[in-house]
What does this fold into?
Amino acid sequence: MAIRYPRAIQPLVEAALFKGKLIVIYGPRQVGKTTLVKEILSRYPDDSLYLNCDEPDVRAALTEQTSTALRAMVGSHKLVVIDEAQRVRNIGLTLKLLVDNYPDIQVVATGSSSFELSNLIVEPLTGRKVEFRLFPLSVGELWAEEGPLESRRLLERRLRYGMYPEVITNDDPASIILEIANSYTRHGHKVRFLTSVILSGFAPDFSRRRASSEESGVATRPFAGFSPQRTSRDSPAQGDKATSAGLEETQFMPVGSISIPGRA
It folds into this structure.
């Protein structure tokens, strides 16, 4: 069973429940929003409803509906979570109808696209919402579960890969970072490439998975910067074209290094 790390904002969110206002939780994908809200929902097993807006029929049920239709969908539930709410067209008006017409229902909305969701709800829900932001795991949250000794042992790994929950618990954290980078941007191939370069410099085990340093030209120790050099495969005519293929054929040579005390 995967470890569930307690989140510091959970008691704050729970304290804001049933105060007559919408609760909004912002945070990037894979940061633990769904895990958090499901943990809160588990405390209200008979009175809660979870709506995942990744599902097309859920989006349709929430799009441009009357307050009567929304009440029929919610039924007798007193706590309603709308996950990935930014996917619903005009979600701000839908949330306003629920908050204004049914103050006995506590609505919690989450959004991965924080700017997008914020823009959709800022005007119709001014003064009607309480906002929270969920980030990757903090040192304090890790210490609460593991204790300081174990956290110190794993510090170097976490400085390399970050502290997304799945990165913390997965045996192959580098692949998880690349997956997140690839799925969370329109230019995923560029971010994936740059992330692989960074990981190659800071994480020797990842570098070995990609290629040996002699073959790839990528440093396998911490670095301060890179100087791009074209390989012989690039013709002069192709040199001015910035394509993903061109990036993959560019070698990045280290131009500096970071001195780490206690290391050769």
Summary: The domain at 10-133 is CATH 3.40.50.300 (Rossmann fold). The chain has two domains: 10-133, 170-256.
